[in-house]
Amino acid sequence: MNKLPRLKRTLTHLRSLNILRINSCSARCFSTNKDSEEKSNDSSPSLEFGVEKEVTPTENVKVESETKLSGFARSYDKFSHIDDKKSETPQTFTSLMRNSKFVDLGDPEGKVVTGEVFNVIGNDLYIDFGWKFYCVCRKPLKNEQYYVRGSKVRLRIKDLELSSKFLGAVNDVTLLEADCTLIGLISSPLQMAEQKARTRRP
Questions:
Q1: 118-138 tens-digit pLDDT
Q2: What confidence tens digit (pLDDT) does each residue in 43-75 have?
Q3: Is residue 165 assigned to a domain?
Q4: CB 3.0–4.6 Å: which of 32, 55, 112, 182 could bond 137 by disulfide?
Q5: Could you tell me which residues come within 8 angstroms of residue 14 by beta carbon, excluding any fewer than 6 positions away?
Q6: Residue 130's domain spans which residues?
Q7: Contacts of residue 67, Cβ cutoff 8 Å, sequence gap at least 6
Q8: Residues facing 173 on adjacent strands
Q9: Residue 152: CB partners within 8 Å, gap ≥ 6?
């Protein structure tokens, strides 16, 4: 009589470890009713006591989908294939040009864009705003110490390419520069460093 509760305890422990799958037939082994014994004799038992049922491939897929993965297992499954390179068809120049932001911009004259200062010579700021040519703007007097390399600025476009015909020339001669007006500062590495220094002070 004492063996029956022990067996039940071990089976519940094995079930929690997903080692043994229990169905209605295995539960009948513990029942003492004669009706359940007759039913189990009539129907072919799919599980013998302590023996795992053979699972077909379709059932195996269902069992795996039913089992809930832990958070670590789900994240591991998600990020284990992150380095797998997907075969991408190379895009043509026309498709890249058609889907570029500057084509969506329409007529660029008067549009406000964001640029980055990549060089400072004297009071001249060399700003790259993503077009074919960069622009050169004068450093403003207000907060001029923040206009350094890596600063993000706001520009208004006048002309994307400064070019004109000189005396006797047939073709346009370009200065390899764009004409833009500097509106103001968005962010600067010096500003960020000053803010960090203020927050660190007690």
A1: 999 999 999 999 888 999 999
A2: 444 444 444 445 455 555 444 554 677 788 888
A3: yes
A4: 182
A5: 20
A6: 96-200
A7: 18
A8: 164
A9: 114, 115, 116, 185, 186, 187, 188
Tell me the residue type at 49. Answer: F
To the nearest 10°, the Cα dihedral for 110, 112, 115, 119?
40
Q: pTM of the predicted model, to two decimals?
A: 0.49
Q: Which residues contact 11 (CB under 8 A, 6 or more apart)?
A: 20, 22, 26
For residue 107, the model assigns a pLDDT of 82
d(CA 114, CA 90): 29
Q: For residue 142, what is the domain's CATH number? A: 2.40.50
What number of CA atoms fall less than 13 Å from residue 50's CA on the CB side?
Answer: 3
Distance CA 102, CA 98 (A): 9
